[in-house]
Each structure stands twice: as structure tokens, then as C-alpha cells.
Amino acid sequence: MSLLRFSTAGSVDDGKSTLIGRLLYDSKGVYEDQLASVAKASAGSSVPGGRIDLALLTDGLRAEREQGITIDVAYRYFSTPKRKFIIADTPGHEQYTRNMATGASTADLAIILIDARNGVLQQSRRHAFIANLLGIKHFVVAINKMDLVGFDRSVYDAIQTEFTGFLRRIGAPDALFIPISARDGDNVVDRSANTPWYEGPALLEHLETVAVDEERELLPARFPVQYVVRPNLDFRGYAGQVASGVFHAGDEVMALPARRTSKITRIVTYDGDLEAARSPQSVTICLADEIDISRGDVLVPATAAPHVARRFRANIVWMNAQALEPGRGYFIKHTSHQVRGVVRAINFRVDVNSLERVGATRLQLNEIGEISVETHHPLYFDAYSSNRVTGAFIVIDPLSNETLGAGMIVDIEGKEETRGQVSKGERESRFGHRGAVVAVEDTESALLLERELFDRGANVAVLASPDPGALALAKSAGLILIAVGVVPAGAVDLRRMATHEAIRQLERKATLQGHEAELTAGEGI
């Protein structure tokens, strides 16, 4: 049975929680003790006629019940004979934007509620914008409280015309508009006799039939390795969750960052081997060849590799009271890979009400903007617009380990038109460092430094003779050359330094980390 994740969004008091409560109630997705608890709580609420306040099925926090609003994300689960569902009831208040973004980040479909009496409001536009930013491919616009406007078709038509124009302006997918009454159940689970002019499906009918599984399988296959399984000498496998696409036994795959290829020999699960693994299955993949693969590496089709780069542009939702400021170091958690990185610049902040891009030197709590990021080691990613798993990352405070923000990669930064020629930037992205010539005291120091740099993934070699032409060519090819006993022109002098000190010196000079600071010609980078 397939699974659909969806979220609700919209302005305050548009009826998001009531709609979810109605779906749960009418689909028999509520236990009797839950229903009794809600009925008891409803006795003291403002719901007229002694009805059950269906919003209380999701608004479980005490503060939510007192204020009649949604504050935190509430997840609810139910199923029908056709499909399983995970619902994220998200807040409508602007000050809880981070909560709304969290709930929508894993959703396949967004339900945007609009109060028929009030029409399209700023918050309706804001939440549609955020849902589109988070890559949701399916939109339903539920025009709620139609009973309070007498199920007037002209009200429905006016809202549909206005909001369709807005969705097209922000590049959002086409939406299905449904006139509903969440309180009374019109067009929620069953089609309503009160809207004979509406010829579309009821909300649940649409949720049961919208196609999402096929879309995931059409994406290029990606498998971030989470754990190496080595129970005995006769078995080595790589465990993880298929992020997108399909892997078949016998497929040729490439391991990143090693870029070595092999064939899948087995796809192992607890219930036995599979011929194919699809997103979001968790499996263990075995390869025909012995390749050095560890947690954070990615298996991809040999013919459909993702971007490999250290610099990229990304949209970000900032989720911490401590502002995002350029130049600070953070941990970047991307799939199962975590690296150090720095926000090089804030390109702009988005005014989520007017949708205008405005200049900013920092991002505050709940603000959204575009940033330029540079990581110390390459990431293997797709644009978020094409793959929501490999295009997403989170920003972590290296001291407190708090999650600070959620990012969505837009594209490689400074991508060059190479016309078949390998560019300097591509070499740096491949190797994770710039080309350089360094000088050490003796052969033993050179070999120790070579081994340390090589083990860190650097493209490095010990220089036999300091020929100027060879030096220039090697540096342009992204190679770190180690000269023994002499200091060629333009070399970094690491003589009289221990290996670990030499490594730190290279990091400070941006050779290994690729920081923005330029080095002088005398320092050889």
C-alpha cells in the first residue's frame, strides 16, 4: 500500500486543524478514548450546538487549546483501503514559520486553506510560497467555510481566479480547487449535495489517487551510505535508504567520492534479497569489487552522477534565535555526510509577505533568504528542485550541536561554461583543494606529509626535480607537489615543521579548505 505525506497551510483560523480532524473522524481514524477526551474538552469550548471541536484532535498542546491556534507541528496517521497517510498540521502564524517549514519539508502534497469569507490573504500567499520553496509538487486549495457564504459559486470562482494567478507568478504547480466545509464535512470525505456546480472529486478521493510514487522512481538513483555491514569475513554490504530512483541487481554504480565503479551483486533485506530497491526502502547493497566506501559516501548510476562541488547557492529557512551571519563556521549535514563549512554571503532575504528580495547582512529567526555556502570538502548533490533528498541540508552549530537552519540547494556557485575543457574550479571541486607547491626539509618529512594528505583525499605527489615548467603545469592541474630540501619560486615553505603543523599551515593558507582569502604570489597558491 502506498504512502502519501501531506501538510496543511494557510492563514490563522482558516480551519486547518478542523479539516484534519474531520478527515480523521469521517475516515474512522480516531480511537474511542481520543474521541471521548476531545468530546470532554469540547464541552468548555466555543463550538456551538454541543458539537465536537474537531480541531482538538490535532491541537494537543495546552497553549494551543487556550488560544485556539496551532503552535507546533502535529503529525497524525490514518489509512483507507487505498492508501496510508501522514498528515502534518502546521501553524499559520508568521512567528512559527520554522514550524511550518519543518512540517512541509517532507510532504508530497500541500493543502492551502482559504476562508471563503475573507478571500486570499497575505498569509495564504506566504504559506503557498514556502510550500513551493520546499519543493512540494502537488497543491490543493481548499476553499473552506463555504457554508457561511451560502455555497455561492461566484465566491469560489473569484478566489480560484485570483489564487491561480498568484501560484503561476511564483512558479508553483497547478492546483486543484475544492469548495468545502470542514466543520460539516462537505466535499471532505464525500461529495456534497450543496455544491452541484462543482464537478471535481472530494478531498479524500483526490488524496487517495494523486500519483507520487511514480515521480520518485523517475529521479536519478541515489543511495547515501549510512553504515558498512561487516558481520563476518564473507560478507560486506553498505546499508542505507534509497533516496531516489531505483537500483537493480546487476546495475553498474559509481561510489562517490572515490569515483570507482562496480556492479550490484545483491540487494539484501531482513526478509530476503530483492531484485530492485526503490525510494524510500532501506536496504543493504553488496558490490562485486572491494571499494573503500564508508558512511557519508554515495552510490549513484555510473551514467548519472550528481554535482560534486564545495561552493553552491541555497535557499535557507533560519530556525534559531541566534542570527545567521556570513563568515561563521558551521557543520553542514547533507544526507549521511557531515562536513565543516562557512556561509560566504547572504545574497538576499525574502520578504515573505510581499515576496520581494531585499538586501540583508544577517538572517533572523524565521527569516528566509538565499546564501552562498562553501564547504571544506566536496558534497555530492542535486538541485533541490530536482531531488529533495540530495538537494537538502541542515546547518548545525559546531559548539552546541543545535540545528540552526534548513537549506535547499539552488545550484553550483560560479559554474563556468567549460566547452569540454576541465576548468580550475572543477579540479578544485574534484580534489577538495587548490594546486600548490610546498617545500619540506627532507625525504622522510616529504613521505609522511604525502601519506597524510593522500589519506585525506588530496591529489599529492613528492617532487623529484624542481623543474619550473613541471611546477606550473602541476599546479594548474590541481596537484599538491612536495619539494625536498629546496624552496622553488612561489612555494609554501614548510621546512622545520612537523607533519601536523604543516597540515595546519596549509589549512590556514586556504590550500586544503578553499577559503575565499587570496594568497600572495610568494605563497604559491
The major β-sheet equals: 6 strands, mixed
The order of strands across the largest sheet is 2-3-1-4-5-6
Gyration radius, to the nearest Å? 28 Å
CATH topology grouping of the largest domain: Rossmann fold
Please, how many domains?
Answer: 4
Q: Could you name the CATH homologous superfamily of the largest domain?
A: P-loop containing nucleotide triphosphate hydrolases
Helices, by number, come to 12
Fraction of helical residues: 10-25%
Report the sheet-strand fraction: 25-35%
The computed structural class is alpha+beta
Q: Oligomerization state of this entry?
A: single chain
CATH class of the largest domain: Alpha Beta
Under the CATH scheme, the architecture of the largest domain is: 3-Layer(aba) Sandwich
Overall outline: elongated
User: Between the first and last Cα atoms, what is the distance in angstroms?
Assistant: 57 Å
Count of beta strands:
25
pLDDT < 50 stretches: 61-71, 416-420, 513-525
Mean pLDDT rating: 81
Structure write-up:
The chain is 22% helix and 31% strand. The chain has helices spanning 16-26, 32-42, 62-67, 97-104, 122-133, 153-169, 203-209, 213-218, 424-431, 443-455, 468-476, 499-508, and strands at residues 3-10, 74-79, 84-89, 109-115, 138-144, 175-179, 223-232, 235-241, 246-248, 252-256, 260-268, 276-278, 282-287, 298-301, 307-318, 329-334, 337-350, 357-358, 368-381, 392-396, 403-412, 436-440, 460-463, 480-484, 492-493. The chain is α+β, with helices and mostly antiparallel strands and 525 residues long. Helix 10 crosses helix 12. A six-stranded mixed beta sheet has the order 2-3-1-4-5-6, sandwiched between helices. The chain has a six-stranded antiparallel barrel with strand order 7-8-13-11-10-14.
